[in-house]
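User: Design a sequence. Structure:
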């Protein structure tokens, strides 16, 4: 049984740095494949937009299923062992993309890859969130999440370039090597004994639902579900949208603009959360993210797509930083695996259904109109956040007092 050792109020420990690097490599696998899958299956297998959305989203369906069990059994299996299982599974699954010779077999590989991804990301997030002092949760989770943000910038840009200049096999090679290197890094993690898992009697007292879900996180999860449906439409169809508008290069730059703006604003947003609480971060984030969707929908020039990407980075980045920090603040250390699982289940479910919904909508009204519809859906996040979370003054006060303000 293992848990990382911690130094009081210190963020950048050896384990923190190692897991951050591993998380980048895991996210690189995810983003490289996510942004090229729709284009690839449309070209190679000659399927519909809806089927392309399924091929993109089925990866996330796999991660949803695995997170249910990764969160429940992480303590029993051990954090390090569970992390290695997930990363090694990603590398092995990615190698099978080379031999997937039909749309059905390609989807099966995507599903297995997603299963392994869910295990790896949930465990990595749990390790890091158990290291970070609650008084610095905004900063700690903010810096850690930059690993996935850099992957958001590098992954699509590199994957699209490799696909265009060398071919899809080079993308599959990148997707295989990234988690393989991550598995090597994971070997060097040195973790201490962790809190014991609930006994059978304790588990019965907790209840079946609470063994797999953390109730304190459900309001946050509801908001993230709505927001990440929009994000799924971006990652799943931006490459195709850019090609049909005649701005392929600009479409790939959308992800770079998103990442740059998240990186630029993350330190400020994280400290603002620690000092002022969640509302001042999340409300503006929802508004800005909504506006970004309308830029995608009304784009007639390449720069409009890139500006939309920048607004996505500012808006979604604020939402991500705020909600991730809330998870750490609201959940006890013993419940972190389940709390993290609940949080990521909402993200993964949204990222799974997002491309499917986007593909279905765009099949009838086109990609530009689809992004306008997505903007309207994102705007619903404002009353949703108020209803399920912001008006709860007890939680709002908890958010502030725990940060030492």
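Assistant: Done.
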């Amino acid at each position: 049984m293992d848990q990382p050792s911690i130094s009081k109020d210190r963020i950048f420990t050896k384990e923190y740095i190692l897991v951050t690097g591993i998380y980048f490599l895991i996210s690189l696998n995810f983003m490289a494949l996510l942004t090229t899958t729709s284009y690839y299956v449309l070209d190679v297998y000659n399927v519909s937009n809806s089927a392309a959305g399924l091929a993109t989203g089925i990866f996330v369906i796999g991660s949803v299923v695995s997170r249910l069990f990764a969160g429940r059994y992480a303590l029993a299996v051990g954090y390090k062992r569970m992390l290695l299982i997930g990363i090694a599974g990603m590398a092995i699954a990615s190698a099978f993309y080379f031999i997937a010779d039909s749309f059905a077999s390609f989807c099966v590989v995507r599903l297995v890859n997603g299963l392994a991804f869910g295990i790896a990301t949930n465990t990595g997030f749990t390790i890091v969130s158990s290291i970070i002092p609650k008084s610095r949760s905004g900063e700690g989770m903010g810096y850690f999440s930059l690993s996935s943000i850099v992957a958001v910038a590098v992954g699509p840009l590199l994957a699209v370039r490799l696909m265009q200049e060398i071919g899809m096999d080079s993308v599959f090679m990148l997707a295989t090597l990234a988690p393989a290197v991550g598995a090597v890094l994971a070997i060097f993690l040195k973790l201490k004994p962790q809190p014991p898992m609930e006994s059978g009697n304790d588990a019965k007292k907790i209840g079946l639902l609470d063994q797999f879900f953390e109730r304190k996180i459900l309001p946050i999860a509801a908001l993230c579900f709505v927001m990440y449906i929009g994000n799924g439409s971006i990652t799943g169809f931006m490459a195709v949208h850019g090609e049909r508008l005649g701005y392929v290069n600009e479409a790939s730059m959308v992800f770079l603009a998103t990442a740059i703006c998240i990186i630029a604003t993350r330190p400020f947003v994280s400290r603002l959360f620690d000092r002022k609480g969640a509302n001042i971060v999340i409300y503006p984030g929802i508004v800005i993210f909504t506006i970004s969707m309308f830029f995608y929908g009304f784009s007639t020039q390449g720069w409009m797509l890139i500006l939309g990407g920048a607004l996505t980075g500012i808006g979604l980045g604020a939402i991500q930083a705020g909600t991730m920090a809330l998870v750490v603040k609201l959940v006890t250390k013993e419940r972190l695996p389940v709390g993290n699982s609940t949080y990521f289940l909402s993200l993964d479910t949204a990222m799974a259904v997002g491309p499917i919904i986007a593909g279905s909508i765009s099949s009838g009204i086109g990609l530009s109109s689809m992004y306008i519809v997505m903007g309207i859906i994102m705007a619903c996040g404002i009353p949703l956040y108020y209803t399920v979370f912001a008006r709860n003054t007890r939680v709002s006060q908890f958010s502030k007092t725990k940060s030492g303000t």
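The chain has 16 helices and two strands. The mean pLDDT is 82.
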